[in-house]
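YM 10:42: Putative DNA modification/repair radical SAM protein sequence, as discussed on the call
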Amino acid sequence: MALLDTTQKLSILADAAKYDASCSSSGTRDRNSRDGKGIGSTNGGGGICHAYAPDGRCISLLKILLTNSCIFDCHYCINRKSSNVRRARFTAQEVVALTLDFYKRNYIEGLFLSSGIIHSSNYTMEQIVEVARSLREDHDFRGYIHLKTIPDADPALIEAAGRHADRISINVELPTVGGLKRLAPEKSEQRIEGAMGQMRTAIEDGADARSRYRSAPVFAPAGQSTQMIVGADAATDRDIVHRAAHLYGRFALKRVYYSAFSPIPDASAVLPLRRPPLMREHRLYQSDWMIRFYGYAPEEVGDAADPATGMLPLDIDPKLAWALRFRDRFPVDVNRAPREMLLRVPGLGPRPVQSILSIRRHRTLRLEDIARLTNSVKRLRPFIVTADWRPLLLGDRADLRPLVAPRQEQLELFAA
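YM 10:58: structure's back
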């Protein structure tokens, strides 16, 4: 490691960080240096080091590991102790210098920092906290900071991370306890959830203090998130949906991220030989939105999965799968139905539903009105009733799925 220069370290440790999906920069409080004080901001600057959030937003972060050396031997991790990969390590001050240099060049909006575990959990966490502390206190850095914390570390260190970071994340790693014991035996669900519970308490206490005293310090204003690896164990989509709902409810998480397992060099014999389809990851994000924004209960999203396998269909989205399974709930009268039922119509999102609710106060909606609010009214017709449309025969067809499922098309690489 001593022979590597900063550029070589950056190449190794930025590549090693690519498996962590939870690097969204949304939700933090507004800070900037327009008054001439400090450096950086949380809401500006385009960059060239781009990361894409699952909802499509483009963000620019310096996303690196402090080190890819690790004393743990998690089977699914490319940086595990027994993995034959090139190792590198940054010092805390090297990360600080890189962050400031990249920010001044307008490459990034902030920092996403994670790490393998070296020496001990507390030693590693001390180094991570020192990066954030130095940026905030020594350099008055006001950009975004997301720290990946270590559940086994001393609670005082995790709390210190929250005082300097905008967002904290603690990975649950795998959806089931059995999967965690088999693939990451050194990690404990009890310790992971214990750390997440402590972080929730600290965030809520910080918010309460800020509501009472304006001088109270801000604590992790963008909340906490987590990540689950999909496809490394035998967990079904139904299992994953229920686990995510549990995490949202118990720990008030901002996001649960899903990362499709990818086969790694020198893989353990207990791992699958093939990666799961990336579409499975996408369907899980869609199911996540159904619970967070569309009012579905976790059990209802689970009902969209195949009863035998527990897996969500890959060819259609889970909202459409649910509607096809519960045909007795449709069609929905767009001029009378409550918001909750309108949100369950395939093809209608929160914004079109809000427009429908606003328009129908003044006049009766027709099919052409709905067509103006959506991308494809053909998909909606079996599920809605308007002033001039009622799907008498279409809604009762046994072969409805092929009519409403999106058409599969082969894309051309060099199409004009």
